[in-house]
Here is the input.
Amino acid sequence: MPKVTVLMPVYNGEKFLREAIDSILNQSFSDFELIIINDGSSDSSLSIVNSYDDSRIKLINNIVNKGLVYSRNKGIAEARGKYIAMLDCDDVAYPQRLMRQFIFLENHPEYLMVGSGIETIDDKNNSLGLSINICKDDEVGSRLIFGNIFTQSSIMINRRIFANYKYREEAPFSEDYDLWIRLAENNSIINLPEALIKYRLHSGSTGTIKKNKMISAVREILVHQLKKLKISPTDRQINLHLSIDFPKEDHDNKTVDEVREWLSLLIQKNREVFLFPDDAFVRVVTEKWIKFCFSVLNKKPIEFIKQVFLCTPSRNSNKSVIVAYLLFEKYIRKSFILIKFKFDHLKIYKCL
Here is the structure.
């Protein structure tokens, strides 16, 4: 029995499929099976898979297109490995990806899922930058209410979890985000602080083709999450919430005040229902608030200082002050207002 099963759904993925398959076959970790689910492709995807003569590859062929949720669940049902790793057919795994995640899960059985950072690339394999979501264990649920912090292609998960969970057909355009939220409620899941895959952005990717449907699906998940906090959000509140991580520089002071009031409401409601650990939730909310202020008020240093130190949603947490200081230091360094502090942000965040 293989120790790891790699699942790779494919639908008309001929352009990047071979590179994705090769990145798995060339892993430093060799005890795996690669299950490729051809989901009714009309291009040469099936021929590409059949061109490989490797006993580790197992092909599942859907005669007609069934969709990602069906294909992922079908692959999970056929998996034999103790752990299941995901990789989309247009992404690329670093050679050490399976080894790093396998060793982590073996050495830390309290975790049932582990993701990683990503290197974003374009259709010509040009690097567009790194993204690494690092957070403490008690912050995972708090961060997920603000957005998806896990990348599907970076996930390795203990197969036994699928006895109680699966990708839901009710969330066809955000099935991964939906699953992570449900897993985080009662299980330990985390990201490793390093990039282990190349995540490709291109005109044919699901995130590009179905962007509007995915945004709509995320809104539905957000409303469901907020109802757990006993909040029935208005459209304006939902838009404010979604703008926190992607603010516009032209937001006026009224919008800034609305965001602060909204974040304060989240803290208040969480303290009433105990959905997330209070200290962790306050840390995350404070960080979101200061990043929002930095993005919106980066050309108004006095107003930024006022909002950070006088109007933060919650001022009764020492760790919130630490986060505020670190983010303010970043602001100072970028805007050349005061002394350039030389801190390693990544290491500091890991210690918070």
The longest helix spans residues 253-273.
